[in-house]
């Protein structure tokens, strides 16, 4: 197995476990590269990548841009606030205009679920989904799983809880799909109003009590409450949420073993996770960010490598 | 139909490696400022054997040893059907000011060595870089690259393949020819 089974990275759903392994093995090489004094390789020097962000992003955008630059790709950045989208242009027109300037790959974040797949069907470029609404955020799930693999060696049989706003979280969906493909057991935890119906069909269990979930797990992945996506009130107050579902040292002290703490960012300190826990030695939050660059380099490298420029 | 004929047997390989090690010893003294760098994937075994021999001959047990992968520097990325999959790099020291001996099993077009030379520059500026190969396939070069130390020089045709088996109990080097129908 030396090539991905897909031309685009639209979601974890389309990847096989062999694809994920290939991405991880390639990312291992890039991780050594980004940790040496000269952090750059020339592989993608004839590739141009457009980073198109129709939604705000700091981490993902910087991470993709660094990954592209360390592969020597040329990059153009574009965000909706400063673009013709606000003048009424359609998504396909916007992207086709960019592609006519000879762009090979598009990394896109968009508020509409399915936007990446729609784009992949309608434009002639490789598409990497950097988050499509509440649907998927595949590179985040890959870097989360990669960070767990780094810590445990293998995810087979590991118990992972995903806590928080599962309903509005693309990170949760991509993580569930990825972790299941790698053989981990997954439980989701949060207020019943923030757990989508029929989620058990993905092969996960539900647990509404955080303390019980913590007793069971090896890894706790804490998610942010996505107030910007919540059109109605899903719980009485942030303070009540924090008391029920906030991860604090008191809660962790009651369990007599170490749990690995993860968070995809941005963190709301004092809401879903306390500062002491976020900065503790069991937290691998900053490792996740570092691994994000290596994993995105692997994805871009493997996708770009499929295109034969002679064709 | 494949035609496989031996060019070096285990005794000849042993003699060649010993001669190469002595040549290196003559040139590099006790190797205090020298690094042996094997080229992934197929130069590694040869580099390990040479490194071991050099330790015995020079009495220096701490000769620097590294494994270099040049996949990300190759000039055929996006130019074939396959994605080039990298191997690991083990080079835990800077090459600044060192004498570097690049080791690969077979020198053919010279393109892997070209990419390796580029990869090397990312680890510092060596004082001098030399190339050691077990088999030099003459008259097939696509770049102006020649070995400094050669085990065996052979004349081959484009449809030939040189097969180096160093790992087995009975090391051999073969030329494999796909016979035309």
Describe the structure concisely.
The complex is a heterodimer of chains A (311) and B (181). Helix content of chain A is 38%, strand content 14%.
Top keywords for this entry?
heterodimer, A: 311 residues, alpha/beta, four-stranded parallel beta sheet, B: 181 residues, five-stranded parallel beta sheet, three-stranded antiparallel beta sheet, 3 helices, 8 strands
Task: Show the helix and strand layout.
The complex is a heterodimer of chains A (311) and B (181).
Chain A: H1 17-34, E1 48-53, H2 59-70, E2 74-79, H3 91-99, E3 105-110, H4 115-122, E4 126-132, H5 138-152, E5 159-163, H6 170-181, E6 185-189, E7 205-207, H7 210-216, E8 219-222, H8 238-245, H9 249-253, E9 260-262, H10 275-278, H11 285-304
Parallel strand pairs in A: 1-2, 1-3, 3-4, 5-6, 5-8, 6-7, 8-9
Helix pairs in contact in A: 1-11, 2-11, 5-6, 5-11
Chain B: E1 2-8, H1 10-28, E2 34-39, H2 44-58, E3 64-68, E4 99-107, H3 111-121, E5 128-138, E6 149-155, E7 160-165, E8 172-178
Parallel strand pairs in B: 2-3, 2-4, 4-5, 5-6
Antiparallel strand pairs in B: 1-8, 7-8
């Amino acid at each position: 197995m030396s090539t991905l089974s897909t031309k685009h990275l639209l979601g974890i759903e389309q990847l096989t476990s062999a694809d994920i392994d290939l991405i991880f093995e390639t990312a291992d090489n890039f991780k050594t590269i980004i940790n040496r004094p000269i952090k750059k390789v020339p592989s993608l020097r004839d590739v141009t990548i457009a980073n198109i962000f129709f939604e705000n992003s700091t981490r993902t955008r910087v991470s993709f841009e660094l990954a592209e630059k360390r592969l020597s790709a040329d990059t153009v950045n574009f965000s909706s606030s400063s673009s013709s989208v606000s003048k009424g242009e359609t998504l396909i027109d916007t992207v086709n205009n960019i592609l006519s300037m000879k762009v090979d790959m598009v990394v896109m974040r968009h508020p509409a679920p399915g936007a990446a797949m729609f784009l992949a069907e309608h434009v002639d470029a490789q598409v990497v989904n950097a988050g499509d609404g509440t649907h998927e955020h595949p590179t985040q799930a890959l870097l989360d799983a990669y960070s767990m693999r780094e810590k445990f060696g293998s995810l087979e049989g590991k118990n992972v809880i995903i806590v928080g706003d599962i309903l509005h979280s693309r990170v949760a969906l991509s993580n569930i799909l990825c972790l299941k493909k790698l053989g981990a057991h997954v439980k989701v935890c949060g207020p019943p109003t923030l757990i989508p119906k029929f989620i058990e069909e993905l092969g996960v269990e539900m647990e509404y009590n955080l303390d019980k979930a913590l007793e069971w797990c090896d890894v706790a992945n804490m998610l942010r409450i996505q107030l910007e996506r919540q059109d109605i009130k899903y719980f009485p107050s942030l303070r009540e949420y924090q008391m029920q579902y906030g991860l604090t040292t008191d809660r962790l002290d009651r369990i007599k073993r170490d749990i690995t703490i993860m968070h995809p960012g941005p963190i709301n300190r004092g809401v879903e996770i306390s500062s002491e826990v976020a900065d503790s030695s069991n937290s691998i939050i900053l490792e996740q960010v570092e691994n994000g660059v290596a994993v995105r380099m692997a994805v871009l490298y493997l996708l770009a490598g499929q295109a034969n420029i002679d064709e | 139909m494949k035609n496989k004929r031996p060019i070096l047997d285990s005794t000849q390989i042993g003699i060649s490696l010993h001669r190469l090690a002595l040549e290196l010893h003559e040139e590099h003294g006790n190797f205090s400022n020298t690094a042996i760098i094997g080229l992934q994937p197929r130069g590694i075994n040869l580099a390990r054997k040479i490194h071991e021999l050099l330790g015995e001959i020079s009495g220096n047990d701490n000769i620097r040893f590294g494994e270099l992968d040049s996949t990300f520097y190759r000039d055929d990325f996006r130019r074939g059907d396959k994605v080039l999959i990298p191997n690991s790099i083990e080079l835990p020291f800077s090459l600044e000011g060192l004498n570097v001996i690049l080791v690969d099993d077979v020198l053919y077009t010279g393109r892997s060595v070209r990419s390796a030379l580029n990869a090397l520059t990312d680890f510092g500026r060596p004082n001098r870089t030399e190339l050691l190969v077990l088999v030099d396939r003459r008259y097939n070069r696509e770049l102006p690259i020649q070995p400094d130390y050669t085990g065996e020089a052979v004349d081959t045709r484009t449809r030939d393949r040189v097969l180096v088996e160093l790992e087995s109990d009975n090391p051999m080097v073969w030329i494999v020819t796909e016979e035309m129908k």
